[in-house]
Design goal:
Layout lengths: L3 E10 L2 E6 L2 E6 L2 H9 L4 E10 L2 E7 L2 H11 L6 H10 L2 H10 L2 H4 L7 H21 L1 H5 L15 H15 L4 H15 L5 H13 L2
Antiparallel strand pairs: 1-2, 1-4, 2-3, 4-5
Helix pairs in contact: 2-3, 4-6, 4-9, 6-9, 8-9, 8-10, 9-10
């Protein structure tokens, strides 16, 4: 199985890239943001790959970093999530935002991805919510991979708002709340207050939510 390629983008379209490795061109399906990111990178480029083998096809799906690749595997484990839907989810929601949407049960955010309707969004939340606490604690790469091996660099850092969410979750767990409960409360409060919410406001609002549970 092909797990990673190092080379350069020889050609591209909206559905993926033709990736040149030593004169051999690999057709790799990628989400549009991944295509744009790969085009902007100086050669040599590292492309993380998942190989999907079927009776009539041998398909490659590419990702900017190992974290996205691991998330692809997590999403594919949910019934009804095929390769294109998994790519669409990762194109619509970065790993940090996907973690937040699943942890807070934000089905509306999930349905923004092409091919994800209300029923599938509900299934994603139901089947993956138990993994969210472990992912938030250990990092998506380590948790989804069963904690085996060190996590590779996860690409661009999350924005300031994601850092505030992480700090709020940490504060609540230090107060004795479970990680999953804290993550869901902070995620719901972040939705209610918006991305400009301060750390103190998130903590206060989350504590109110937790106190009524």
């Amino acid at each position: 199985m092909i797990g990673r390629l190092v080379g350069q983008v020889a050609d591209w379209d909206a559905d993926g890239v033709l990736f040149d490795v030593g004169g051999v061109g690999y057709e790799v399906a990628c989400a549009p943001p991944t295509v744009e990111a790969l085009r902007a990178m100086p050669a040599p480029v590292t492309l993380w790959v998942v190989t999907e083998v079927r009776e009539d096809a041998f398909d490659l799906y590419g990702f900017r970093n190992r974290e996205e690749k691991v998330w692809y595997g997590v999403l594919r484990g949910v019934q009804g999530v095929g390769p294109r839907v998994a790519l669409a989810l990762l194109a619509t929601l970065r790993p940090e935002a996907l973690l937040l949407a699943l942890g807070s049960g934000d089905r509306a955010a999930l349905t923004r991805a092409s091919g994800v309707g209300p029923k599938l969004a509900a299934r994603l939340v139901t089947e993956l919510k138990d993994k969210v606490g472990a992912m938030a604690l250990a990092g998506p790469v380590a948790a989804a991979a069963g904690g085996a091996g060190p996590a590779a660099p996860a690409g661009p850092p999350p924005d300031a708002g994601d850092g505030v969410v992480a700090d709020a979750v940490s504060a609540l767990t230090n107060l004795g709340y479970g990680r999953s409960d804290a993550f869901r409360a902070v995620g719901a409060e972040r939705q209610a207050q918006g991305e400009e919410a301060s750390l103190n406001a998130l903590i206060r609002g989350s504590l109110k939510r937790l106190s009524t549970q």
